[in-house]
Amino acid sequence: MINERKIAPHIIDNSPGRELLKVIKDQLKRSKEAKFAIGYFFLSGFSLVREDFPEEFSKRPFLKIIMGNETTYSTKEELVEGYNLRELFKQRMIEELQEKEFSEDQIKQLKTLRDFIAKNIIDVRLYDRSRLHAKLYLFLRDPEERYSSPGLAVVGSSNFTREGLVRNKELNILLTSREDVLYLDRWFDELWEESVEFREDLLKVIDISGVLPGSPYPKIGKLIDSQTLFKYLVYRWFEGRVLNLLKKDILLEFQLVGVVNAVDKINFYNGVILADSVGLGKSFIASTIIGEFLNKKHPAWVPEDKDPSVMLILPPSIINQWEELLIYSQYFLKDNKIDKVKDKGNFKIYKVFDKENKYLGKIAFLSLGKFQNLKEHDLKKFAEEYDFFVIDEAHKYRNKNTNRWRNVRKLQKKESGFSNKFLLLTATPLNNSINDIFNLIRLFMDDTFTPFMIKGVPIVDLIKRYKDLKKEFQKKGDTKIKRELKKVATEIKQKVLDEIMILRTRKYIMEQFKDIKINDKPLVFKDPIPYSLDYSPFYTKDYKSLIEVINNNLNKILFEHTKIYGTRYVVFEEDTLDGEEADKKFIEVADLFKLLLGKRLESSIFSFETTLRRIYEKEKIFYNIFKMEIKGIKDMEDLKKVIKRAVDRAKIEKELEEVKEEYNIEEENEKTWFNRVIKLISEYGEKAQEEKGYSDVDLFKLGLEVVIQNLEKDLRYMEEIFKELDKLKEKENGEIKIVGKLPTDKKDVIEPSIYLYQNDPKFETLKQIIGLPSFKSEKLKDIPSLYGKKILIFTQYKDTAYYIYHNLLNWINKETDIHRWLKDKNNRVKIGIVTGDTDINAKINYIKRFSPRANSGYEEVNKYGEIDILISTDTLSEGVNLQDADVVINYDLPWNPMVIIQRVGRVNRIGNEKEIYMINYMPSKEIEVIVGILRKLKEKIDDITLIVGKDVKILSPEEEISIETFGEKIRDISRSTITDLESYNISEDFKNFIPEGIPKEQLDEYKLLNVIQYELGYTKEDFEEVIGMDKGPYYSYIKGSDKIISVYEFYRGKYKVMKKILSIGEDGEITYETPLVFLDLIRERKRSPQKIENAIEKLKIVKEEVDKIKEELKEGYNHRQKGFLYNLYSTLIFKRREVGEREIKNIENKLKTVMIVLRTIPHYLYSKEIKPLLVSKGLIEVRRNNDIKIKDFKGTVETLFEFFKEKGLTDIESLKIKVNHVGWYYEVGDREDNKKRT
Hints:
There is one protein chain. By secondary structure, this protein is of the alpha/beta class. The protein has 6 domains: 11-215, Endonuclease, Chain A; 226-240 and 1018-1117 and 1220-1233, no CATH class; 253-448, Rossmann fold (3-Layer(aba) Sandwich), CATH 3.40.50; 558-741, no CATH class; 758-993, P-loop containing nucleotide triphosphate hydrolases (Rossmann fold); 1123-1214, no CATH class. It contains 48 helices and 39 strands. The strands form 9 sheets. The chain has an 8-stranded mixed β-sheet, sandwiched between helices. α20 (541-556) runs antiparallel to α27. The longest helix has 33 residues, at 696-728.
């Protein structure tokens, strides 16, 4: 191998001893002038320092460099419209500088270059007439020499880069002859004159590259073509989820937007509250997400190597409805095979398979009643087994003191720490307090509120501040406080509610999606016309007498049997935020029965009678058993056996379920029920004793006698009511006429018959408005005739539904001339009934026959006949389309306006253009009964909304209950339009910060996805080229309006907390954009000439704005810890400085996590647990004022880490904010495009 310089001394090939760099350094020092002509000048390869140059320069510039157009860009990239080599060189040089990690020596070399250029020691020109491929290094020691060679030239292959001068296998030759050197000198000078000035450009390049220490300029990244940049930005923005728009044939555009946004929020927050107004398709949105999840579209929601499983937790009355929608409708899992593997009524499980019969996952339907009573081990099992929990009617979980709330929180994480995902559905978030919403958020978020914390949002502090200001304003009414309250409310709306809630009203949909068409017709929401029907003019003397007896006797009835089985219910006052448990209020079953009976009376006479008869029969069972067994009761154990026998025989379980369902409250979980019963019996005995001196045994027996007497009185009072009821019943051959039977099950103690009541005022008016108009009474002149219309009748109670159904059947068959339209040509009656007991297939059949146009039901109509009147409980008030109907009748008026909105939502569907009537029955005398019951209740519990529900807007905690105010509010509801009811239903809190639909950015995200998938037709393969591109930024140039669009991601630790698109125009003004602006990149794909200095100067201004955002994020979470946890945090910091590095080394990561968690967790939740834990283990000593002495630093850290890990609080790795510049593009205006090459 030829290595020695003695052999071929003029050959320079970078082999050892023949490095070109050595030649250059050697010659430069000895030269008076140097001239380099090179294909390209790689600044990062400038390997010279001051010492490599002569001490003095007799001529300036000392070193002239001509660089050509030999770059790393392809010809295709260069030769675009308006190609500009100067701009391309500057851009490429900046890129090349920024790509490199510079050592201190290399920084020194670059400073030398910059300094020499600035002092005109080095001058650089650009040859742009043709391609310059030559490499010449010319050193002139004596340019004026006349006889010998004036210097030395190197000609060959080496470029002026580190690789070309030292590393690459090059081939260069040294030329020293006078003729050669002089020729090359002239050749260079001629080329110099033909070249363009580049010295100032080069200075600017070095300055704005951001490489030199202290530079404020950002990194520009790597140039790519505009279409690739479009794909890259889109892929990053949506985190790879760019082709997820499904079910476009089923969902409307705004519903698809809901799906996209819900998924996005679940990905970050682990849960979302879907709270769209009634009739906007929440169940369809949820079902779409469930379908996607089961078909493995959201793999991040499931641990690795696990099949997805979803559980729906539902009120029992709507399990069938969801089952029908997901399993039987063929909308959402139509491409899947489904097998039922479990069916226990209130718990059903289905396995889901793909077309090839490959198992995908499972879906479970669980009743709320069963769920809230689950034990710890069952909850752990479900948390492991299921990954996605969908909770309908989530407003029922707003109280953190209930079992159901606590149980949901136990589903948050798997043992591995993996976070399960949650979708909460509610149509009534707006009538909740801010505390209620806070509690709903806590269902899917642990006590560190990690997602909010890493975004710098102190959610607990914000809500506490709002509550404090609200209280202060209520006391003082100060306008300054009101302004501050509004400011905090706006912050909560923007930083909390907009983040975790999707809430769109009809008005919002109309404004934002006005171009939507349904069956080629514009989207409309037409308010039904409300009519308040007061049926009191139809009261008869006997009916009034009945109401009077009911009113009197209900107050006297004790419902004694409920006291004997010892159950009572518990409600809670409003939550506090400081960790203190809310006050409990206990409600006796007897009080709830009275209110239940009052509401049943308002629904129908029959519903009242049936409910009272069930209670009567149960009480009678207790009476008979106690009367028979009383002499045999010798001790407490005997009494307990007798009570249990009575409870079993009277089938009390169903009674309690009915109460829980009616009032949405929980049984008190106390094992002391029997002690209360003993106490009650003893108190009875003491009051009944005629003189002192009775033994305990005698007092006990005397108390039992009182129980029997009370039971007897109850039965007598109820019998008096039955007597009055019997007077109203129609007779046939001297016997009470029966027109039907109520469906029963094995839990019922009676099999109620259905009767006809003579002149039932409510039913009488129903007959009149649906019969021939000529049959209608003058008393109903303000109510339109419903003759020949398609009518949907809603009632809250199954008993009332069957009563209406069987009485209508009897009437239709009896008086055919009045309502000919209710029988078809085959003499089939055109009415139907649907309740929670209706078989799912029968239910579907009735829906299709009642609303065949909306449900493709003409085949069923031809087979079984059409239905024109459908009677239903609220089992049909959600998720069903009954758009064929003309009328909704609220036969009983729910106290919660949202229920009315839900009912009418079945008919007043999206796109409905016809007139819809809403007939609301307005009670009169029945109100007196209800008001009397409520007054008695208020004597026992001040805030009766705790029982009837916070969403009941006709009651408020602070006002007195009177017939006048109660009746007026009922009347208001009965007269209100749906739009009015939606407003009526908004709580004071939410009037301050109601979320206004979906932010524009999120709407535009959907529009962008829509274009990508359906207009551009992109597939998964189109994005493969950008999947591995993670070392940005990337950039491009397009034609446009002289602005730069730049995209940034903000991280706290591993979490992406924010993403922003900023634009800056010629005026220097910064604007925040939405991702829809990315579409500009594919409208003009050519790169135009660019002013890179201008671009970087603007990016510098944008970077300053980004730095402000970064600072806001840093300061945003300035959580100040309190009390014991603050002292513990401070003491650990101090102790950390004392202990040696060796002790820290093994626990460094744990210590970091512990310190982060200690800074962030609410002090009120954990101080009481952490303090005794550390003290009991002898790890710390707590002195006065919570001063702490740490006795075992390592043990303290490890114990805290394990405690936090067990609580699922160790997710946060860092609180530091990092910014990732994803990419940018320059929209160059026409004046730039039209410039020619320099």
